[in-house]
Specification:
Elements lengths: L1 E7 L9 E8 L30 H11 L12 H6 L3 H23 L11 H8 L8 H17 L9 H4 L8
Length: about 180
């Protein structure tokens, strides 16, 4: 379901913008693209791909220049669980490593199911992103996470720097 939100601004800098929902946007609204089926995407003359290669060239070039490949997911465990069961964090890491190994083996057999971009070119992906395009652990992802923290500071999403030691549980710091 899509909602249309309207923002109202004031000339007074002390007044916060007012955000008001105008209710559900119907699938027939020509100003809305409903990714859950309300808008025909294939063959729609109003839509076109932003990047013909699905962004592959941009991602590969960014990785070549910076060595960063942005992570998509993190696993968060409540501190109370880690205090009572400090083994949980490292066991989760190990379980995800094993799961990824199984997924990569399946990918080699079924080809494109686990490629980062659509297609069947494992060699091109490996040449650009290395043999493991989905790294996990702080050794592999620490620099990416630090860059995300820096970007969050630059954009005002964080008010003070964070250290990896402050946000990751001690048993996972050497992963």
């Amino acid at each position: 379901m899509a909602l249309r939100l309207t923002m109202a601004f004031s000339d007074n800098p002390r007044v916060q913008p007012l955000i008001r929902s105008e209710g559900r946007v119907t699938a027939g609204d020509p100003t809305v693209i409903d990714r859950y089926g309300g808008t025909p995407v294939h063959g729609n003359p109003r839509l076109r791909k932003l990047l013909e290669d699905n962004g592959k060239g941009v991602v590969y070039e960014y990785y070549r220049k910076t060595g960063f490949f942005h992570c998509n997911h993190n696993v968060i465990v409540q501190n109370r669980i880690l205090q009572d069961h400090p083994w949980v964090a490292l066991e989760l890491y190990n379980a995800f490593q094993q799961s990824k190994a199984v997924a990569y083996e399946r990918a080699r057999r079924s080809q494109s199911a686990y490629l980062y971009f659509p297609g069947q070119d494992f060699q091109a992906q490996a040449a650009n992103l290395g043999d493991d395009p989905y790294p996990i652990g702080l050794r592999a992802m620490g620099k990416n996470i630090e860059r995300a923290i820096q970007g969050s500071l630059e954009h005002g999403l964080l008010t003070k720097p964070l250290r990896l030691e402050d946000i990751y549980f001690r048993t996972t710091l050497k992963t």
